[in-house]
Amino acid sequence: MSSLLASSGTSVLDRAGTVLTEACDDRLWAQSDTEIMERVQAVLRVRAQADAVLLAAVGEVDARALARTRGSTSTRAWLHGAHQLDPAEAAMLVRTAAALRAGFQETGLALFAGEVSLAQARVVIRSVTDLPADLHPGMAAAAETLMIGHCAVFDPTT
Questions:
Q1: 147 and which of 3, 15, 124, 153 could share a cystine (Cβ 3.0–4.6 Å)?
Q2: d(C-alpha 70, C-alpha 100), whole Å
């Protein structure tokens, strides 16, 4: 994990925001076709990493029941009301954050590394969760690993 993601506090996120603002000022028209293609790949990796940071924070808010201390009935309601997130998106973030905290460590690490997207992580979580309850725990972990590997080849709808 990069030092940017390993650091805590909003100051590191402010620095990340500054870097992204600088990236917005890049003269894209002056870049080669290869540079533009690599840029898209890099931005998608950073987007996945930002989603991982968000999910970790949402998971902590939910685990501590902090939304209730702010007058909301739930973390989902707080994300919707305080941050104007679509209710379905807010619910998805809370569910995904809870799943990552509950044992999908490899999926979380892949998201933090930018190796899988949020949508792909959700498919991995849903697929492994849908396995039979009496399945040997080692098989579920193996399925998670296998699915993460498939993320490099398949999109989340496949």
A1: 124
A2: 24
C-alpha distance from residue 103 to each of 48, 79, 87, 145 (Å): 19, 23, 25, 13
pLDDT of residue 8: 59
Q: What is the pLDDT of residue 13?
A: 87
Domain ranges of the chain: 47-150
pLDDT for res 7: 52
Dihedral, CA of residue 98, residue 101, residue 105 and residue 107, to nearest 10: 20
3-state secondary structure of 152: coil
pLDDT tens digits for range 41-73: 999 999 999 999 999 999 999 999 999 999 999
What pTM was estimated for this model as a whole?
Answer: 0.87
Cβ atoms of 101 and 59 within 8 Å: the answer is yes
Query: Which pairs from 25-31 meet CB under 8 Å and 24+ separation?
Result: none
List the structure tokens of 32. Answer: 């080669």
Amino acid at 125: I
Helices (DSSP H) in 64-86: which residue ranges?
Answer: 66-69, 75-83
